[in-house]
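Predict the 3D structure for this chain.
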Amino acid sequence: MNHNTPLSPRPLHELSGRARLRVMTVAQLRTHGVPTARTNEQCRPGGPWQQLLPGVVLLHPGPPTSEERLHAVLMYAARERGSGVPTQPGAGGSNPPAQPEAMITGLAALTLHGFSATPPLPSLEVIDVLVPRMRRLRSTGCARIVRGSSLPIPEQVTGLPVAPVARALADAVAGLEDAVVVRRLMTEAVRGAHCDAATVVRELNQARLLSRPHVVDAVESLLAEGRARAEDRLYRMVREYGLPDPVWNVDLRLPGGPYLGGLDAYWPEQAVALELDTRAPRQDDDTMISEYARKREHLERLGITVVHITPRKLRDALEQQATVIRTALMAAADRDPAAYVVVLPR
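Done. Predicted structure below.
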């Protein structure tokens, strides 16, 4: 007997017995030689199979596992009209990379990313799946459709396409009204080093969630915590890499003149100023950027070197940031003396 010869149709018990094929679309079953009428017969009440979602079949009786539900919602969301398989690019010419068809997002995605503040997968009644805005799909059963005009590049988690943490968090927050839960999820995203606070706020802003009071309150707490953690890294950088001690958290003024701005650290002898760039994207982001630029230009006209550092750079490249500051301090000897400024504690 030649075991390499395909069976047509493939025996149903063979499909049911293979773990990877315990969830299949109707179209996939047809490619295995199982006609739609036979699938419908198998899915009758009391039968060995069941329809888990429209066009998606669970090849065993009883409740699906969490993994099977995840695969099922992706199959439901990604299947093409009438075929159940992705559209192939044209035979001639090149095509731009296709936009992702579907990915797990929301609470289920955060759980897959390892969050402890999210419910375990078996307790989630629905699984959010992110699809392009123009897809004609409806939420049904355990699949809740979330649409986006631009989809991020998914991350592979346990072999599944999953939205990055910041995007999954924004999609989860969109459906949450409990301020405590929202704050807990945001805090874990930053404390767990999944992403920085600015990235979270950027996603929330793009999702137009910053008008909700309970989200704004959580964001303010998140940014305060993010700044505190960045300041701790800044103190550690100065200590561990042997930089001269600056004066911390000061305001600068011209003698008898206007206020120049606040700084996180300042080296008066070298006229080097350091500012933590912890601003978050808001609706008036352009105005905030202009204010930062004007402040920097004013200080530099006075001969003061301004170094901007983001929390992400402090987290991911501490030694590199120490080198940037050390270089600025060493270059002070080659510059003209800076204007005299008054340094006041905040």
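Residues 190 and 196 are 5 Å apart (CA to CA).
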